[in-house]
Design goal:
Blueprint: E1 4-5, E2 20-26, E3 36-43, E4 49-55, E5 69-72, E6 86-90, E7 96-101, E8 113-118, E9 126-133, E10 141-146, E11 149-156, E12 162-170, E13 173-175, E14 181-183, E15 185-186, E16 194-196, E17 202-208, H1 216-227, E18 230-233, E19 240-241, E20 244-245, E21 247-258, E22 278-290, E23 298-301, E24 321-324
Parallel strand pairs: 1-2, 9-22
Antiparallel strand pairs: 2-5, 3-4, 6-7, 8-11, 9-10, 11-18, 12-17, 12-21, 13-14, 15-18, 16-17, 19-20, 21-22, 23-24
């Protein structure tokens, strides 16, 4: 069994080598025991490491304890790698005096942690905009006005060094306004990194690590979320059930293919011996729609008519709704919306701002100008 040793950082993929699975193998007492003459480390052509310790002359009254310490290389030791140290004692003329076998040592890996992100958030129960409401059924998303919802993925607690990450997303199902069960719409043109299964129920992505990555952890952190962007839409989805919002769920599973894989770890798909390289995540979310059908970025809607009563108009509450849809290829930031009230009666003024602010941030400010 190869037992070559390295002290190089295994988070740098340039330092990962097949057959180099120990980062420490030492006999600390060899430098402090006067009975020890010298120590020699030998690496054979087949990758075995031998610690050879030469003793001074001893007699049958000598008692020597010589502990040794070893540790496996972080992240890159195959899960099925086993090491059983053997201690042999020889006389000065090369005669073998005794052989002692130690226990068998191996490694265990905790599972990784896959995080599915819905519309930029890692938490459950996000309220996300899904498009214009149906003209005939306002509690459902329209068939031709559904908007894409963005899903992304992160990988936390990567105890194993992965050269490939495979993510399979089970496409959400939903009930439309007619009571039919449907699958979220997947457009291959909008999702070039994802492949739709033959049965149309799942999509799969493979994220490969290029050669020469100096910091594997940072590379996955910085690149996987954008590479794994998944756009899905829900045309016709019923998102309100009376006054309650319908809950939707989405589940994804990941498999890591590690550097220096064990026999089972190189297999795509879950088999005995590679279960520790899998994880899954399920997210709950809710949909929101509106009844805007314009093509512009900014829309405003209010009452078509206002009943006029000169004696009570001052206490009448009128509701207006504003929608802003970013149709540019870059984010919009620091958005300010001005309402021109120069030609509005003095008895009409803003009383409150309400609504879902998920799409534009966490707060809205009202600025008055006299």
């Amino acid at each position: 069994m190869p037992t070559k040793q390295t002290s190089k950082n295994q988070n740098d993929t340039n330092n990962i080598a097949d057959g180099t699975y120990l980062d420490n193998f030492a006999t600390p007492a060899s430098k402090t025991q006067p009975i020890i003459k010298s120590e020699e480390t030998i690496v054979t052509n087949d990758g075995k490491t031998i610690k050879r310790i030469y003793l001074n002359k001893i007699d049958n009254t000598v008692r020597l304890q010589l502990p040794y310490v070893m540790s496996f290389a972080d992240k890159t030791t195959p899960s099925d790698f086993k090491l059983k140290p053997v201690v042999r004692m020889y006389s000065a003329d090369g005669t073998k005096l005794s052989t002692l076998e130690d226990k068998t040592y191996g490694v265990t890996y905790p599972k990784p942690w896959l995080m599915k992100i819905v519309a930029g958030e890692e938490t459950d129960d996000q309220l996300v905009y899904a498009g214009a409401s149906s003209r005939t059924n306002p509690s459902s998303i329209s068939e031709d006005g559904a908007s894409d919802i963005n899903y992304n993925f992160k990988l936390y607690q990567d105890y194993r060094a992965y050269r490939s990450i495979i993510i399979t997303d089970k496409l959400p199902t939903y009930v439309d306004s007619a009571g039919n069960t449907r699958t979220a719409k997947f457009d291959p043109a909008k999702n070039p990194n994802w492949t739709l299964s033959a049965d149309g129920k799942t999509v799969t992505l493979r994220f490969d690590i290029p050669t020469g990555v100096r910091d594997l952890r940072d590379y996955i952190r910085d690149n996987l979320p954008a590479y794994s962007n998944l756009k899905l839409s829900f045309p016709g989805a019923k998102y309100m059930n009376g006054s309650n919002r319908v809950n939707f769920t989405n589940t994804a599973e990941m498999q890591g293919i590690p550097f220096n894989p064990g026999a089972a770890e190189a297999t795509v798909g879950k088999v005995a011996g590679n279960e520790h390289n899998f994880d899954d995540d399920t997210k709950r979310f809710r949909l929101a729609g509106d009844d805007y059908n314009g093509d512009g970025m900014l829309g405003k809607k209010g009452p078509l008519t206002i009943p006029f009563d000169k004696n009570s108009l001052a206490v009448r509450e009128l509701e207006y709704a504003i929608k802003l849809v970013n149709k540019l290829d870059r984010p919009l930031t620091d958005i300010e919306i001005y309402e021109d009230v120069q030609n509005t009666g003095g008895r009409l003024f803003m009383t409150m701002i309400t609504g879902n602010l998920v799409g534009v941030g966490s707060r809205a400010n009202s600025i008055s100008h006299s």
